[in-house]
Amino acid sequence: MHKILSTSLLQGEHAVSEAVALLTQGECVGLPTETVYGLAADASNDTAVNKIFEAKGRPKNHPLIVHIPDVTHIERWAKDIPEAAYLLAAHYWPGPLTLLLKKADHISNVVTGGLDTIGLRVPAHPLFLQVLTELNGGLAAPSANRYKQLSPTIAEQVLEGLDGRIAAVLEGGACEHGLESTIIDLLSATPRILRAGPIAQAQLENVLGCPVAVPYEHVEVVPGNVKAHYQPNTPLAVLSPAELLTEVYNGKIADTQYVLSSSKVKEQVMQAAISDKQWRFLGEDAATYGSKLYVTLYELDKLHAKRIVVEQPPVTEQWRAVNDRLSRAASSTTDG
Ligand code: TXA
Ligand code: MG
């Protein structure tokens, strides 16, 4: 049984030093990043890292990303670091890119879930960076949600999921990207994207000057990268624009169902066929849509929606991260 804690929301001028003090004592603290809120603990303290697994209810063989203050810390955590890592770090750190490298020998297996690799990133949120700089160390931080739930993009959602299970949450506003970082594996001969995110394949290829592979199908390369992840509680279906039109005109979208859209189709052809209340336009560009996706799914869960119908966004490289999360959210498979 986990210990019941009273979880405080840290805000104001002493918030960062309070977060640093708790982390130094080996506690878990929810911290804002530019992608989603993370549940942080001292990555070099196994007891602290174990508290993350406990608070989330996450299996211990699912590896955690380690967040570092800047690129100079990379050698403390990884070894045999290829030039590509430094190139990417120079372009995208601080930012939403996680580099998968060989872990340094002295790094504990607890944080890597028993793997001999380690995911590293420098997050761009100023408060997270301040905490890291003051600690001058690494923070393990998965998304700050209970296992298999949606990643939180505002502090309030962290509390909803983890209140009483962690020491504190640092208030840092709404996350800019709203989707988790891109993960690139630099261990294979051809670098490959393990998780699509805000930084797209073409951007990585431009910097590296070589092809970057993107698995077409979702591949579970490690425990934790499971298909049925990132799911709202409400059943979710992705329909083509034509299928959506048919459902709307056949009256199949009852008033307990909601539509997420990436186009102006309602204004153009649906108008009164479906109510404004059921319609959520998230944006015609992938970045705006991505920043609103999880927050909207949280909102609809709270409204006890019966079903969420998503208009299939364009199937292009720009939309890859959004489409990846949507296909997982729609997945009915479970992985135990
Ligand atoms: O944007 C993000 O990356 C957020 C913020 C908080 O930084 N973090 C995040 O962590 O999304 P998490 O644990 O929810 O997702 C990390 C993913 C998991 O699917 C995990 O399996 C994979 O990264 N991962 C971590 N370390 C790995 C490793 N050594 N090898 C392969 N995959 C790894
Ligand atoms: Mg997660």
What is the fold named in CATH at topology level of the largest domain? DHBP synthase
Give a quick account of the main beta sheet: strands, pairing sense, barrel closure.
11 strands, mixed
- Portion of residues in beta strands equals 15-25%
Spatial shape: globular
Radius of gyration: 20 Å
Q: What are the low-pLDDT stretches, counting only 5+ consecutive residues below 50?
A: none
Helix-strand pattern: EHEEHEHEHEEHEHEEEHEHEHEHEH
Distance between the amino and carboxyl termini: 21 Å
Number of helices: 11
Total DSSP E strands: 15
Q: Please, what is the CATH homologous superfamily of the largest domain?
A: DHBP synthase
Proportion of residues in helical segments: 25-40%
Provide the CATH architecture of the largest domain.
Alpha-Beta Complex
In CATH, what is the class of the largest domain?
Alpha Beta
What class, by secondary structure content? alpha/beta
Ligand set: threonylcarbamoyladenylate, magnesium ion
How confident is the prediction overall: mean pLDDT? 93
Q: How many distinct folded domains?
A: 2
What does this structure look like?
With 336 residues, this protein is of the alpha/beta class. It folds into two domains: 8-208, DHBP synthase (Alpha-Beta Complex), CATH 3.90.870; 236-330, Rossmann fold (3-Layer(aba) Sandwich). It contains eleven helices and 15 strands. Strands 1, 2, 3, 4, 5, 6, 7, 8, 9, 10 and 11 form an eleven-stranded mixed β-sheet that branches. Strand 10 and strand 11 (192-195) form a beta hairpin. The longest helix has 17 residues, at 286-302. The radius of gyration is 20 Å and the shape is globular. The two termini are 21 Å apart. The model has no long low-confidence stretch (mean pLDDT 93). It binds threonylcarbamoyladenylate (TXA) and magnesium ion. Magnesium ion (MG) binds next to loops. Residues 142-143, 151 line the site of magnesium ion (MG).
